[in-house]
Every structure is written in C-alpha cells, then in structure tokens.
Design goal:
The structure holds three protein chains of three kinds. Chain A is mainly α. Helices cover about 75% and strands about 0% of the residues of chain A. Chain A has one domain. Chain A has a two-stranded antiparallel sheet with strand order 1-2. In chain C, the strands form two sheets. A two-stranded antiparallel ribbon of chain C has the order 1-4. Chain C has a two-stranded antiparallel ribbon with strand order 2-3. In chain C, helix 1 packs across helix 10 and helix 2 crosses helix 8. Classes of the chains: A mainly alpha, B alpha/beta, C mainly alpha. At the B-C interface, loops of B face loops of C.
Chain lengths: ~300, ~240, ~290
C-alpha cells in the first residue's frame, strides 16, 4: 500500500465527521443499512491492512468476528458480565488466535494460508457447538443491552476511524515499507534483512483483533446469539469482495467498494433471496477479469493515461 | 591457505538436494578488503554456494561463519542484518517501487539501519555512486538491463554490508556496458570492500580478483591468484574437458 | 476398533481418488482449484438426479460423468484460466488470481445447483449391509471403494506407462524443462486439469451412493482434498493414498469415539501438525 499524505488523512477525517451525522437524518431501514455498511467498512479496511500489501487472501474474518459475537453472548448470559468485559476480552482472544495461526501458516506459501483460513470459521463453530452441548449445556445466549442502532453505528464508526488512522500510521512506518517490499518480492525482502514472518504476523494479528471487536460491538443488534449465525463463512467472502472491488492497494479503497456493494447486496437479498451464491460468484469473477486492482486501481490507471496524453 | 582475520569463512560445506550433491565439502576464507572470485563451469555449484552464504539455502553439512560468528544456521534476513549483502543472478528489483524506493529498501533494513531523512540521503548517495541519480523517480520497468543491475547494486550498498556477494553481476551485458560494469566493481575494490563474486567473464576476473576459488562438480579444484588458477592443468581440464587439455 | 478400521479405509478409497484429481490440477496445471469440491458435488448431483428421475444406476452415471466433466473442465481451463496464466508475471500472482477466480466459479456452481436441487441429494442404492472381516458395512461403500481403486490404478498406470502420461508428469516436475524438450505445456496442463476435474466428478458420484450431500457442501470436500494433497506432498500419488487413509481413519475414529461434529476439527488438527512439522508433505522432498 502506498503511503498516503496529510491530505488523504484530512479527507478521511472530514468523511468520518459527516458520517457521524447519518443517524440524525436516517432511521429505520436506512439506518440499519448504514450500520451494516459501517460494519463492513471497519472489517474490509482492517482486512486490507494485511492483505493489501501482502496479497494473502485471508478468509478468517468470519472466525474472528464470530469469536467477538460469541464471547459477548456467552459472557453476558452465562456469566452475567457487563457488555464492556467481552468487548475488551474478545479482541485479545482473537488476536492471540490470529497470532498462532499466523505463526503456523504465514511462513509458507499463500495457498496454505487460504486453505487454512477457508474452513476456520466452520471448525471453530463445530468446536464451540460441541463444547456447549457437552460441557456448558445448551442454553440460549441473550445479549440484552440498552444500545440502539445509532449507538452501534457510532461505535463502529469509531473503530473504522481508528483502523484507518492505524493504517495511515503503519503505511508511513518501517513496518509499512517492509510490507510493501514483501508484497513485491518476498525473497528480496528477506535478503535485504526484513523479518518477513514477523511483519506478516503482526498485521494478521491486527486484523484478527479488529474483526473480533466489530463482532462484539454488533452483537447487541441481534439480542440472541447463535453460533451458526455469528460464525458465518459468507461474511469472510463478502469482506474479501468489498475490499478487492474497491481496491486493496489504497487505504481508502475498501470504502469505495463497501458502500455500493452493501446496497446492492441488500437489494439482491430482497429481490433474489435464493441467488446470493450466484451473485457472490459473479462478483469474484468481476474482480478477477474486469477490476484486478479494484475501482481505485482503474481510476489510477485512467489518471495515468490522461497524464501521458498531456505530456 | 589460511588468512588470519578472515571476514567470511566457509568450512566443509556440503549441500544435497535429494540424491544430488550440488556442493561437496567446500572450504575457503575471505579476508577483509579482499575480492575473491568463485569461478567454474556451468552447474559446478557456484550459485548454490552463494545461496548458502546469503541464507537462501541451509547447508546440509559444514559451517559458514562471519567474523567468527556462525551464520550458516541463521535465516536469510538475519544474515543480511549481520552484514552479508547480495545481488541475484537474474536481477531482482521490486517492480512496484520506483528506483529510489528500491535503493531505500536496502538503507532501511540492511546491516546498518537508517530511517527518514537519513535513509533517503544515503539512498540518493548510493544511487549517485552507481551513476543513476538522474533516474531516481523512474519506475524500474523503464530501466535498461544494466541500469536495473545498477539499482540492485545500489540497494545492496545502501545496507552497508561487510561482505558483498555479486552473483554474475556482469552477465548479460553488452561490450560497452561490460566496460562500465567492470569499472563500477573496480571502484568497489578501490574502496576496500570485501567482495565475493561469481563470474564467467575471464577478463573481469583477471582485472578484479585478488584470488580465485575454482569449483567443478561441486568441489573446490583450485585456489590462488587469477593467473595461477587459470593456468592450472586441472582447471583447464574442468573447463575444456579431457581431450582438449 | 475393527469397525473403524474397515469403514475408515473404505472411505479413504474415494478420498484418495478425489485427491488425485486435485493433485493433477494443482501439481501439473498449477491451479489451486477451490471449486474442486463443487465439481465433486456436481458429480453427486448427476448421480442423484439420474437415479431419482430415470432410475439410471449410479455406476452407469460414473461412466457418463467422465466425458462431460472432462469437457466442462477443459473449457474452464481453456477460456477462464488460460488468460490468467498468460497475464500473470509470476507464480504468486497466478496463485492469487486462480484462488479468486475458482472461488467465483465455486459460488456460481453452488448457485446453479441450488436452483436445480435445493434439498439433500438423498437416495438409496445398494444400501444392504454386508460383513467384511467380521465388521458390518454396506455394499455401496465397498463398491465405491473398489471402483475408486480401479480408476486410481488405471490412472497410475497411464501416468507411468504411456507417452502422454509421462509428459504430464514431466510438466509437473518442471514446466520450463518440459517446454524445452518439446512437450506442449499448455496442452498438457489443460489435459491434466480436465482429467483432474473428471476424476473429481467421478469421486462425487461414488460418494453420493453412501453419503447424503447437498448443493453447498462442496467446500468441505475441497478442504479434505487439499489436506490430503498437502499431507501427501504435491504431485505424490503414493503420498496421497497414504494421506487419504490417515484422514479417513482419523475422521471415522473421531466420529465414532468422540462426536461426528468434530470430524472437521480432527482434519484441522492433522493439517496444523503437517504445516508445523512437515510442510513439504509426508513424502515430499524439500525442494529448493
């Protein structure tokens, strides 16, 4: 990811301020879409922090997100803890898990990593269901809070802003430069003295942390938590699609993908409820064959062409 | 031949790939400020030897050490930080980065690590050193082959390595480029850098190397000054085959 | 104990076959085909659909599926994957493109299959119990195992004793060197990809006789096949057979002794152990 300057940060801050007013003008249906979009924005931006520069396709988002949601449900209903406790604990748990997965898989080729993350949410879901059925007793997990959609929205906005700021800082740091080099040629990266495994693990751990945080924040929206619902493999794929559609090469790329895709996805869900798989498939093919660097990549390509014509 | 105060020391190093022995109990030392050529026919294991020094491969047996510290079981990035810098047989630049950023990568993560202004100034200085300052902000895809090689050399120099490994740095250059190339490396020699170079160009070897190690079929068959080894009967046999010897 | 052994080994026969299919695609054509499981389910759907609508024996479907899946996979390789191979500057980029493209294909296949049959592919064929070495199993499992062994054996012989077979293996070892000795690499890659797809679909038709599948289960089989290929070592047929046996046995053991819901977790455990201790596979060599 190319480091971005102060202008971009300023624009992002402006956007965040405007976005903060959305719950004051929208309600009901549109607010609920805004919450979903903000959720995907936070997830896709943090996903791109890792996958943008390294080109590793992580499908672990659903697993970390699920850990967030599930821990909120379990800690609030099984242990009567306050909402903020899992909000702090879940991201740490997910970050630790991400670190372990990263250490085991990120030394190896990207294929191994994709395969490993592919079934991860499903495996954790199976494990949790088994533990719950055999040791905890299967009571329902209720999440009862006073939080309304607008509160969830603002919390997610805050997370998205923090992720963006963090990404901006990383891009200007040694670590960000190291990741760019790794994304270009890992062998060269090692030979100039970069500890490639550590750099990748740090970033992957970060995405795990934020995915779980988002999962925890959004949990009160459902009030009743089901492992089958929070550990959704579909979520992982949607995050990949949105981030790549916008363009993972720029910090603001995911933003460009998230907003239109969330709206289209809602519309597809209503119009063609049984064809969601087909649309996801078409979106992937669109990315590979038409927009390999996302909308942002296309825009930059056009800009470069214009500049050439002027010169 | 033992040198007191060898910077780099290779002793009894063997590399097997499955059943194939690519390098077999190689030993040689490189003293400070020395330029040592590793030469030999194609497939004699020279590049494998370089890959083991830089940490791309681990030796199956033996020991490589730098200033007495064993580096042969370290990963490549640690070896780079210890002070071994290398170029690749087929130039490897970072295609998504421009020229100065490529050089910067060496300055930021190499043996001596710099950051910010300091790193940028140093990278520019190295680029000037190889004569490519004018192309600082060009994308690397626009460069000619020798300029790509220059960028790679500048990247390695930017890390201020104590030992420089040049893997066929002169290969693929046309005659005029070759002259420039030899001059560049000659300057490195004049600066007193410690260099190990794998090379095929005999003129370059005579002009540049203090000493040569000759490899054939994975083994060291001769060692000495360029003139000594190039007149050695066994070396001639290795290059030309028995009939011609 | 013996029950686990017998049913685990019977299961591993089809697993090995499916993994051979993926191995051809990844080892030779160098495409990590994540739609592999969906091709398998498509084979299962064909067997189910022909059996329930026109009483065609699944064993006949197995034969019918081969040419159809071969042509289908050949077309996919030729028109969707070849452009990616051409445009990629390095193996890493091709890997990412292939992963995303085959994900896309897998979802499209699921979408199509859901619209054909949204429920379970449940049917009964040769489901009478039989006794093997004193343990009870069912006839369809045994038949599926035998057919898998026969097809796998035929493939093995073809790869080792025919000209095109040896050419395919040469491409697996090195695309560059194969090109230099006059092997038509793009053609052999397409052949391997198509053949791999056909074998996978056959495996699906066989599996459907004793496991009830549905349109969206493919990813589970993709995972299993990948774990087997990685465990056995890419391009290693014998490795894949041993790995399939291990996976089949462990899954059966966990399902009978602990909980059927944990088979995936067990597969993951094996996967993690392999990645940590033998990333080149049980039989793979450390490559440069």
């Amino acid at each position: 990811m190319k480091p971005s300057g102060w202008q971009e940060l300023l624009l992002a801050a402006l956007f965040a301020m405007l976005a903060a007013f959305v719950p004051l003008v929208a309600n009901g249906y549109w607010l609920s879409i805004a919450v979903t979009a903000m959720m995907y924005l936070a997830l896709a931006t943090s996903w791109a922090l890792f996958s943008g520069p390294t080109h590793y396709i992580s499908l672990a988002t659903g697993a970390f997100f699920g850990i967030g949601g599930y821990l909120v449900g379990s800690m609030m209903s099984d242990y009567q803890l306050a909402f903020w406790v899992p909000l702090v604990v879940a991201p740490v748990v997910a970050a630790l898990l991400a670190m372990l997965i990263g250490l085991a898989t990120l030394r190896l080729s990207g294929v191994y990593f994709v395969i490993f993350t592919l079934g991860l949410a499903e495996m954790i879901r199976n494990l949790i269901s088994w533990i719950q059925n055999n040791f905890l007793g299967s009571r329902g997990l209720y999440v009862l809070t006073d939080l309304r959609d607008q509160h969830i929205y603002w919390m997610l906005l805050a997370v998205a802003a923090v992720v963006y700021l963090l990404g901006w800082l990383i891009n200007r740091s040694r670590l960000g430069f190291a990741l760019r080099i790794i994304g270009n040629d890992e062998t060269v990266a090692r030979h100039v003295g970069i500890n490639t495994a550590t750099a990748k693990v740090i970033l992957f751990t970060t995405t795990g942390f934020f995915a779980a945080l988002v999962g925890a924040i959004i949990a009160p929206r459902w009030s009743y938590i089901e492992p089958n619902q929070v550990f959704s493999p579909q979520l992982s794929f949607l995050v990949v699609i949105m981030a790549l559609l916008g363009g993972a090469g720029r910090l603001w790329g995911p933003l460009v993908g998230v907003i239109p895709f969330t709206i289209i996805w809602e519309w597809v869900g209503v119009q063609f409820p049984n064809q969601s798989f087909l649309f996801m498939g078409l979106a992937f093919l669109l990315i590979v064959y038409v927009l390999p660097n996302g909308v942002v990549g296309r825009i930059e390509q056009l800009r470069a062409r214009l500049r050439e014509r002027e010169a | 031949m033992r040198y007191s105060g060898a910077v780099l020391s290779v002793s009894g190093v063997t590399k097997r790939f499955g059943g194939l022995v690519a390098v077999s109990s190689m030993s040689f030392d490189v003293a400070e400020h020395e330029m040592v050529g590793v030469i030999g026919p194609n497939g004699s294991g020279k590049t494998t030897m370089m890959n083991m020094i830089s940490g791309a491969f681990k030796p199956t047996a033996g020991r490589i050490s730098m200033k007495g510290r064993r580096i042969s079981d370290m990963p490549a990035q640690t070896i780079a930080r210890e002070g071994v810098g290398r170029t690749f047989q087929l130039v490897r630049l970072l295609p998504g980065l421009n020229v100065i950023e490529n050089v910067l990568s060496g300055a930021v993560f190499g043996h001596r690590r710099r950051w910010g202004r300091d790193a940028e100034d140093f990278a520019h200085a190295m680029l000037e050193r190889v004569g490519l300052e004018a192309m600082s902000y060009a994308p690397v895809a626009q460069l000619t082959y020798i300029d790509q090689k220059r960028v790679e050399l500048a990247r390695v120099l930017a890390g201020e390595p104590e030992v420089l490994l040049l893997d066929e740095w002169l290969a693929g250059l046309n005659p005029t480029e070759l002259e420039t190339g030899i001059e560049l490396i000659h300057n490195l020699r004049d600066e007193g850098r410690t260099v190990v170079l794998v090379e095929h160009v005999m003129d370059a070897i005579r002009a540049l190397c203090d000493r040569c190690v000759v490899m054939s079929a994975g083994k060291k068959i001769a060692e000495g000054t360029p003139d000594e080894v190039l007149n050695d009967a066994e070396v001639i046999r290795a290059y030309l085959g028995d009939d011609d010897a | 104990m013996l029950d686990i052994l017998v049913s685990g080994l019977l299961l591993s026969g089809t697993y090995a076959l499916v993994a051979m299919g993926l191995n051809l695609q990844y080892g030779v054509a160098r495409i990590m085909n994540l739609a592999n499981g969906e091709v398998l389910v498509l084979g299962a759907l064909a067997a189910f659909w022909l059996f329930t609508t026109s009483q065609v024996s699944p064993l006949l479907t197995v034969i019918l599926v081969i040419p159809v899946a071969f042509v289908g996979n050949w077309l996919i390789y030729r028109f969707l994957l070849t452009p990616l191979v051409r445009r990629s500057k390095n193996q890493g980029q091709l890997e990412v493109d292939a992963i995303l493209a085959t994900f896309g294909m897998s979802f499209i296949l699921i979408g199509i299959m859901v619209s054909i049959e949204g429920g379970f592919f449940a049917y009964k064929y040769l489901s009478e119990p039989i006794s093997i070495l004193g343990s009870t199993s069912s006839l369809n499992r045994l038949v599926a195992f035998l057919i898998a062994v026969a097809i796998g054996g035929a493939l093995y012989l073809w790869l080792n004793h025919t000209r095109p077979g040896v050419a395919v293996r040469a491409v697996a070892v090195s695309t560059e060197a194969s090109g230099l000795v006059g092997i038509n690499v793009p053609r052999m890659s397409a052949l391997a990809f198509a053949l791999g797809g056909a074998i996978t679909a056959v495996g699906g038709a066989l599996i459907s006789t004793f496991i009830t599948l549905d349109a969206s289960i493919g990813v589970v089989f993709t995972m299993k096949a990948l774990i087997i290929v990685i465990m056995g070592g890419v391009g290693e047929i014998r490795g894949a057979i041993v790995a399939a046996a291990i996976l089949g046995l462990v899954e059966t053991a966990v399902a009978t002794l602990v909980d059927p819901g944990l088979t995936l977790a067990a597969a993951y455990l094996i996967f993690v152990l392999i990645l940590l201790f033998r990333p080149q596979g049980l039989f793979g060599r450390v490559s440069s």
